[in-house]
Design brief:
69 residues, mainly beta, 3-stranded mixed beta sheet, 5 strands, 0% helix, globular
Length: 69
């Protein structure tokens, strides 16, 4: 059974939903909010965002806007 605790020992995690504008690259696809590398304990449920067609997406939970570079 997979661990239910986020292992942050390998990387420094950033606060989820702290910014309202994020620039992402193709390496970040498929795009989800919160993104990998963000703390999860105080965030909303993960939602996948379709950014490929327009180059822009907005999270329906927190309002964070993502731009594809």
């Amino acid at each position: 059974m997979p661990a239910m605790v986020q292992d942050d020992s390998k990387q420094r995690l950033i606060q989820a939903n702290a910014l309202h504008q994020y620039t992402v690259t193709a390496a970040d696809l498929p795009l989800s909010c919160p993104m990998p590398g963000m703390l999860l304990w105080n965030s909303h449920p993960k939602v996948y965002l379709a950014i490929e067609a327009t180059g822009w997406a907005k999270c329906p939970y927190c309002g964070a806007e993502y731009t594809l570079k």
